[in-house]
Amino acid sequence: MSAKRTVAGLVSVVVGFAGALVVAPDAAHATNQRALRPTSWVYTDSRTPNKAYVNQSTDAPIGAWKDTNGKHKSRSYFTYDISQYKGQRIIATGFVVAETQANDCRKARSWQLWTTDPVASNASWNRPPRERTKVADIGGTVCPSGYIGVDLGNVVRDALAAGKKTITLELRVPERLENDPRYGRRIENAPALVIKANSTPGVPTQLTVDGRSCDGGKPLYITTTTPTLNALLTDPDSNDTGGGDIAYATFAVWPVDHPEARVELPEVWAGYAPARAWGGIPAGILQDGVTYAVAARGRDDVDVSPWSEECRFTVDTTRPGQAPVVSSTDYPSDNQQHGGPGIPGTVTFSANGVSDVVGYAYGEGNTYQYVAAPALGGSASIQFAPSRAGIVFLNVRSIDRAGNSSDQVTYRIWVRNTAPAIEDADPDAWLGDTHHLTLRPNLPGTVTYTYQLDDAPAQTVAAAADGTAQVQITPTVSGTVFTVFGTTAAGVKSGTSSLWLLIDSRPFIESAEWPFDGTQGKPVGTPGSFTIKPHMHGVVEYVVQFNQYQENEQPAQTIPAGPDGSITVPYTPTSASGNTITVISRTADGTESEEAGWAFYPASIAPVVSSADYPLGDPDGGGGPGIEGAFQFRPTAANVVSYQYVFGSEPQQTVAAGADGTATVHWTPEQYANPAGGWVGLRVRTTSANGLVSDWAYTDFRVKALEPTIESDIYHWPDGGNVGQTASFTFTAHLGGSTEFLYSFDGAPEQTVAAGPDGKATITWTPESSYSHGLNVRSRTAAGLYSGYAYLPLWVNPS
Question: ω into residue 798 within 30 of 0, thus cis?
Fold first, then answer.
């Protein structure tokens, strides 16, 4: 049998034999439970009485046994190193051994386990180690037994108490049976000494109060009576995977002047050591102005650590009563301009009589920095360099030793604009032309200017005697940014100025017939033209397109430029809407300008449409399904010979104009346009003798529904009937020639009922459910004309 055994397997045997060891090691409880193997083992043999067998690879013999040399008697000794458990609490110990051979299984096992003196180097059968205490008698009838375990009680605990670093155990057969080979057996040569121990948790360290460390020896002040507490917990124990014991912490707090008022707070769980424990002091314990001490101790599942060193703190919840005073000779708050962006000046903050101020928070806007006062209640100075020109507000608060802040004071500074002025002598220069710039100082003593064009390397130019400088730049693209700052002989830099050179390369476009100011130009069909001129050098052609992305879009044209670089493009608009012109210019090397685009508005020559039968735009409508109407068309263009017109979604039709240019058409609706509420669209345009087609005239009119009327013996909204109560409904047609009615309850498929000679019909209906219902009815003629729908809401009372 192998001498290597798992810890869990060994412990499970000890559990079976001794209730003291009750659990195997696990991650949740890192209590130190391990199976120690002997550091050495020895057996003696009566047949060689003056010799010992040390650390043999064979199994260990116990009692009498025989071989070809005759009869032997043996005892085995196992030494274990227990020094690692010094200072630990020993919870339980056990001896676990695996039996490998029995001479006679008919005889019950009979062993004795003794503690002995250490095995001397000259030990033998005749010179055995001195037996000290019989630990256990070990019996049993399982033969041979895999694992045998026995509780050792206080053996290890007593050995450690006596200052011993090792312990030696002797396994033998009782003397009265030791000569009988039937009781002889063999065991593995590395039996386990299973020890369950626990180390006392470490004293908590790194104690903090309200996030502030107690280390360093400085007085500690806090701003709250309910601070959080924190401490680091440690524990020497670790489990087989390296995890620590579960740690708990208890915090205690008391007034320094009244230690008898000590309060221990409820224990808190920290986690697996090492871990930080978080606690809090509830309201009602601390008072403003009192100095307290706090301490912590740790606990695992077995032992409790000593209390930590105390941490003293004072509660101070009172804010500084006065805001600080801010002053500066470099940047006085006097409504005069001083300094400049980036130019530092000394600003001083004073505590304004508040004795426990330790520093000041200051900043522009909502971003703050901190400066400490050199002494309690003292003033502090900073070097302040404004970030921008103009009115700058410096916000300042004083901070006391507890961290309370005062009211905020706002210090107003007027920062001089030191950025150079830039004058462009050529603001209308074309792309590729040189801009002559004059730089003028706003920072006295400026001797040089440093400028940069976009991301090009920065260049420096000296200032003239009057502080100005001349710079020439030639942008190669539109949108170039020129930046510049000045520098004095002392090395003080001014603010930075920027000039955005947005060069407009769009061609110039103009037209005598159609202005681009939103007013109407010449009428549709009038010939005209557009003159296009360059706005950059070397233009050789233009790309021109009318009505891009519009319904009447025309193909783009590429037109060579004339000798002066301009062109004239003829154009005759065919619509009063959707008229645009877009142009780009292009040089010989393919450089294109920005696109110029404008909308223009030719006057409309759409015809005028009218109807007495179907008044245009009248919500009351006219006529009705099957009723013919006349529509008159009158031209606004000259020499009109025909009209094209479209009713609703019907095909386009054409009618010739009369000698006076007018025309009349007749149209009869086949049915009421229910989805459109009876509205019908009509569009009309003209064609003149010269082929000019006008823009469309758009209008609409409404056809009367001529819907039936509905009468009921029960249902008169909002009054209703009841479930199961039969009601009658009488329909009366208003569409002439109606022969039947089509009706539907609650959106069901339509049903038909014939109309009588008087144009009426009656139906019945019995509701099967309560609440809202509805009835739709329309009439139809023999020729297939439909009226509009009549609708009657129905209310059925809850049953």
Answer: no
Largest CA distance in the chain: 155
Nearest to 359 by CA among 409, 402, 315: 402
Within a 13 Å sphere around the CA of 491, how many CA atoms are in the beta-carbon half? Answer: 1
Q: What are phi and psi of 255, to 5 degrees?
A: -65, 135
pLDDT band per the 50, 70, 90 thresholds, residue 476 = confident
What are the backbone dihedrals phi and psi of residue 782, each rounded to the nearest 5 degrees, phi first? Answer: -65, -25
668: amino acid identity, one letter:
T
Give the other-Cβ count within 10 Å of 517's Cβ.
8
The tens digit of pLDDT for each residue in 61-86 reads: 999 999 999 999 999 999 999 999 99
Distance CA 153, CA 94 (A): 8
pLDDT tens digits, residue range 234-281? 999 876 666 788 999 999 999 999 999 999 999 999 999 999 999 999
89 bridge partner residues? 198
- Which structural domain range is residue 650 located in? 608-702
Which H/E stretch holds residue 631?
strand 629-634
Q: How many of the other CB atoms lie within 10 Å of CB of 623?
A: 20
Separation of alpha carbons 685 and 632, rounded Å: 12
The single-letter DSSP state of residue 622 is B
Query: What is the token pair recorded at 457?
Result: 């390397």
DSSP state of 8: H
State the DSSP H helix or E strand holding residue 16, giving kind and residue range, or none if neither: helix 7-17
In this structure, the answer to whether residues 331 and 369 fall within a common structural domain is yes
Q: Tell me what pLDDT residue 376 has.
A: 94
CA angle at 312 for the pair 307 and 316, rounded to the nearest 5°: 140
At residue 384, what are phi and psi to the nearest 5 degrees? -110, 125
The helix (run of H) or strand (run of E) holding residue 7 is helix 7-17
Is 687 within 8 Å of 663 (Cβ atoms)?
A: no
Tell me the two tokens of residue 214. Answer: 């107690």
Measured CA to CA, the distance from residue 295 to residue 299 in angstroms comes to 14
For 204-236, give one letter per residue: b (16+ CB within 10 A) or e.
bbebbbbebebeeeeebbbbbbebebbbbbbbb
Tell me if 320 is assigned to some domain.
no
Phi, psi of 399 (to 5 degrees): -120, 125
**Least confident window among 13-22, 215-224, 228-237:** 13-22
Within a 10 A sphere around the Cβ of 466, how many other Cβ atoms? Answer: 8
- Number of H helices and E strands in the chain, helices first, is 2, 62
Q: Is residue 289 part of a domain?
A: yes
The pLDDT mean for the chain works out to 92
Half-sphere exposure of 334 (CA within 13 A, CB side): 10
Residue 269 counted as domain residue:
yes
595 and 617, same domain (yes or no): no
CB count in 10 Å sphere of residue 608: 13
Q: Which of 315, 336, 371 is the last residue of a domain?
A: 315
- Are residue 615 and residue 696 in the same domain, yes or no? yes
Q: For the chain, how many structural domains are there in total?
A: 7
**pLDDT confidence of residue 779:** 96
Highest mean pLDDT among 231-240, 517-526, 686-695, 706-715: 706-715
Same domain for 497 and 532, yes or no, is: no
CB-based contact 741:708 (threshold 8 Å): yes
Residue 753's domain is classified under what CATH number?
2.60.40.10
pLDDT at 29 over 60: no
Residue tagged 């489990």 (tokens):
239
DSSP 382-412: EEE--SSSEEEEEEEEEEETTS-B---EEEE
| 3-state percent breakdown (helix, strand, coil) of the chain, nearest 5 | 5, 50, 50
State the Cα angle at 583 between 580 and 584, rounded to 5°.
155
The verdict on 366 and 409 lying in the same domain is yes
Q: CA dist 60 to 53, 186, 314, 756, Å?
A: 10, 5, 69, 124
Which residues, other chains included, contact 791 with Cβ-Cβ below 8 Å and sequence gap of 6+?
774, 775, 776, 777
